[in-house]
Design a protein that fits this description.
Radius of gyration: 22 Å
Number of domains: 2
Strand content: 5-15%
Structural class: alpha+beta
Strand order of the largest sheet: 2-1-5-6-7
Largest sheet: 5 strands, mixed
Order of helices and strands: HEEHEEEEHHHHHHHHHE
Mean pLDDT: 77
Number of helices: 11
Low-confidence stretches: 13-18, 243-254, 256-277
């Protein structure tokens, strides 16, 4: 009985906090409580979906040329899409200009990295000393190539161009792990630290990559352990799995990869948008 009352109190308190937050952070357009939350993808300012959608149509109607970006009415920064219907692990996306959805970003490097997920990493584990990396706490050292590598990796796996939200989410998890370990000596063993890292990144990546999460986390570790830049890492990886990065993908192999890709249960988090009046 007491537990039920405590749960009711917590729910009421949470509801009160949510209402207060809406009052303190109204929609910048209608100045009322935010209804059906929507965000601009670059500045992350929050609006009512109908308010920002109609604002986008208003701006488009005032310009004779097609608009590729939408300037935020609050901070004036340029954005390329509106993100809305954020429920759990998925959300909808409305691009300001439909042509952006057809942009060609999938390079040979993207194809190479996608193909790597359909083969065993092989001898690359013999190229780098994973135990030494963790023993010497090299995971505490910043990696200036990680963000670029992560973006290309997630683009290859999801076959979506704009993955900045996911990249920053995973980077934030890695930075959180690093800050935690920097605070002072820990009684955790090398293997326990390694497991902590993998568990944290898995939790961050799983909503977006689902079936590929475990391999993706292993690939992050390999890249960090290598201490190589992206180009050098690709060369070493290609040699180890006997791939030629400059070679074209055979049509029969590409069809096979596409079929496997369709069967693998990972989440399409950029769904086809629907317009709301």
């Amino acid at each position: 009985m007491e537990q039920k009352e405590e749960e009711d109190d917590e729910e009421e308190e949470s509801s009160s906090v949510g209402s207060l937050n809406n009052e303190l952070n109204p929609c910048p357009i209608c100045l009322g409580p935010v209804n059906q939350e929507a965000y601009l993808d670059r500045c992350f300012h929050k609006f009512c979906y109908n308010c920002i959608a109609h604002w986008a149509k208003y701006v488009a109607a005032r310009n004779s040329q097609p608009q590729f970006t939408l300037r935020c009415p609050y901070c004036k920064s340029d954005n390329i899409s509106i993100v809305y219907e954020c429920e759990g692990d998925s959300f909808q996306r409305h691009y300001i200009n439909k042509e952006l959805e057809k942009s060609t970003f999938f390079t040979k490097a993207h194809k190479f990295r996608l193909r790597c997920y359909y083969c065993e990493p092989g001898a690359i584990y013999n190229k780098f000393n994973v135990q030494r990396f963790w023993k010497l706490h090299r995971y505490l050292q910043p990696n200036k190539w990680l963000q670029f590598w992560l973006k290309r990796e997630i683009q290859a796996l999801t076959q979506e161009e704009d993955v900045d939200v996911v990249v920053h989410h995973i980077l934030g998890s890695i930075e959180s792990f690093t800050r935690q370990k920097e605070r002072g000596p820990s009684k955790r063993t090398i293997e326990e630290n390694r497991e902590d890292f993998k568990a944290l990144i898995s939790d961050a990546a799983r909503p977006f990559l689902i079936g590929r999460t475990k391999r993706f986390v292993d690939e992050i570790e390999l890249f960090l352990v290598s201490c190589l830049n992206v180009e050098a890492y690709d060369e070493v990886y290609a040699q180890c799995v006997e791939m030629v990065t400059s070679g074209a993908v055979h049509e029969d192999e590409e069809e096979r990869l596409q079929e496997v890709n369709r069967q693998l249960p990972y989440l399409h988090f950029f769904d086809e948008d629907t317009d709301t009046e």
